[in-house]
Design goal:
Length: 154
């Protein structure tokens, strides 16, 4: 999808779902990682995540655009445009926009490291690896060994 196609899509969804024109710019921002889009309060343009737009289907793409357009139209009409505002929540539900960005299949699941004390058998779970030569158990100061976790933590 090109910038021009994105601009046209946002303008069409704005007219169909909100019956209001979108008069500003919609662009792809490759620096966005975890969010589907972003509304800028100062100049009213919309940024969208190009990687997410490549990997999701049309309905999800429209839901992300509707979410950002809710921010856009409510802010320009001086109404509650923030996620916590009731007006935002009702307009989002009415138009069928997404509340949260979808999780991409290409995102790596976080790996959990598991360590166990040789003295007291206390198990420690960490997101990052630790140096077992330098680190010791916090309870008994015993030596730690790395082991495979028996279940996945989320």
């Amino acid at each position: 999808m090109t910038q021009e196609e994105l601009q046209q899509l946002v303008e069409n969804i704005s007219l169909e779902s909100f019956s209001l024109p979108f008069k500003h710019q919609a662009i792809f921002n490759p620096r966005l990682r975890t969010t589907g889009g972003r509304y800028h309060l100062t100049d009213h343009h919309l940024d969208f995540n190009p990687k997410m737009f490549r990997e999701i289907d049309e309905a999800t793409r429209a839901g992300i655009i509707k979410h950002e357009l809710c921010h856009y139209h409510l802010h320009l009409s001086n109404r509650g445009y923030r996620h916590k505002d009731a007006e935002f929540k009702t307009l989002l539900k009415k138009t069928g926009g997404l509340r949260y960005a979808p999780v991409l299949s290409s995102e790596k699941a976080s790996k959990i490291e598991c360590y166990q004390c040789q003295n007291c058998s206390t198990t420690f779970y960490r997101k990052r690896k630790i140096n077992t030569d330098r680190c010791v158990c916090g309870k008994c100061r015993g030596k730690l060994i790395r082991k495979q976790p028996n279940h996945l933590l989320i």
